[in-house]
């Protein structure tokens, strides 16, 4: 199976890059399954139902969220009506929606998608992500109940992301990090056949501070004082993500590559 994960979409620039390029990517790369992380797609904070529909209409099979899952209040209702939107497994137990699901890929194959929030350096005391992911993977064995399994680990610390990769090795097809918006150069296949990348990067304008217009972040760094809100940068976006190919019989990854298309970063693709 050929699958693509696109990292955190930031603001209008990121939305337009995904909606413009994803339909052709699905065709040119013969993609069987696509996941998009959309938690910063609406004004840089959260995701609206209308913007979620844009990604689904453009060819995303699943849209994941993150710690900003419900910053846009209409997502509290929308997520209950759209099962293809996934919020973190270990979010508050009273949160609407769900943190995992099994979805149909091209040809009737089944793919598990789950997301968990890390706890290192995060602002809220979320439940243990490792036990949450463990229970989900045990219930959906790779190469058995599902042909592939994707885990989106949304957290600050690269060490925690790497820990999750090794924890899931042999059980997930892909463990990919999100949240920090900077693509890492460690795409690899772990010994048990799990593809891993610490952070897929963002889909947004890299002439920025992690997707935000530079002026306000720089003011706060230099003076320690804020003057306004962070707003997404609106220059040409780079599309960043992770591409993986898997064996349908075992669910193991056979190929993984970082993806960078357009914008300011040097291009990379399968």
Structure explained in plain terms:
The strands form two sheets. A six-stranded mixed β-sheet has the order 4-3-2-1-11-12. Strands 5-6-7-8-10-9 form a six-stranded mixed β-sheet, covered by helices on one side. With 270 residues, it is an alpha/beta fold. The protein has one domain (2-261): Metallo-dependent phosphatases (Purple Acid Phosphatase, chain A, domain 2), CATH 3.60.21. It has helices at residues 11-28, 49-58, 75-81, 129-139, 158-168, 215-223; strands spanning 2-6, 33-37, 62-64, 85-86, 100-104, 110-117, 148-154, 174-178, 188-189, 195-197, 239-246, 253-261.
Which SSEs are present, and which pair or pack?
Blueprint: E1 2-6, H1 11-28, E2 33-37, H2 49-58, E3 62-64, H3 75-81, E4 85-86, E5 100-104, E6 110-117, H4 129-139, E7 148-154, H5 158-168, E8 174-178, E9 188-189, E10 195-197, H6 215-223, E11 239-246, E12 253-261
């Amino acid at each position: 199976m050929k699958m693509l994960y696109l990292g955190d979409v930031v603001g209008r620039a990121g939305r337009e890059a995904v909606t413009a390029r994803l339909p052709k990517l699905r065709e040119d790369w013969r993609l069987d399954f696509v996941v998009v992380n959309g938690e910063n797609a609406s004004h840089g904070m959260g995701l609206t139902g209308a913007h979620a529909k844009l990604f689904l209409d453009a060819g995303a099979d699943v849209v994941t969220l993150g710690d900003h899952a419900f910053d846009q209040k209409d997502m509290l209702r929308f997520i209950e009506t759209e099962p293809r939107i996934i919020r973190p497994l270990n979010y508050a137990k009273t949160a609407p929606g769900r943190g995992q699901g099994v979805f149909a890929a091209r040809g009737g194959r089944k793919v598990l998608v789950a997301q968990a929030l890390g706890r290192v350096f995060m602002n809220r005391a979320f439940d243990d992500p490792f036990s949450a992911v463990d229970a989900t993977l045990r219930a959906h064995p790779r190469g058995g109940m599902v042909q592939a399994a994707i885990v989106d680990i949304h957290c600050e610390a690269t060490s925690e992301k790497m820990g999750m990769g090794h924890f899931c090795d042999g059980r997930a097809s892909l463990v990919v990090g999100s949240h920090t918006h900077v693509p890492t150069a460690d795409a690899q296949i772990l010994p048990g056949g799990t593809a891993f990348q610490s952070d897929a990067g963002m889909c947004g304008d890299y002439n920025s501070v992690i997707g935000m217009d530079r002026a306000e972040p720089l003011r706060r760094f230099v003076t320690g004082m804020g003057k306004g809100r962070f707003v997404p940068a609106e220059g040409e976006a780079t599309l960043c993500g992770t591409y993986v190919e898997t064996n349908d019989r075992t669910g193991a990854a056979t190929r993984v590559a970082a993806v960078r298309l357009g914008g300011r970063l040097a291009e990379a693709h399968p």
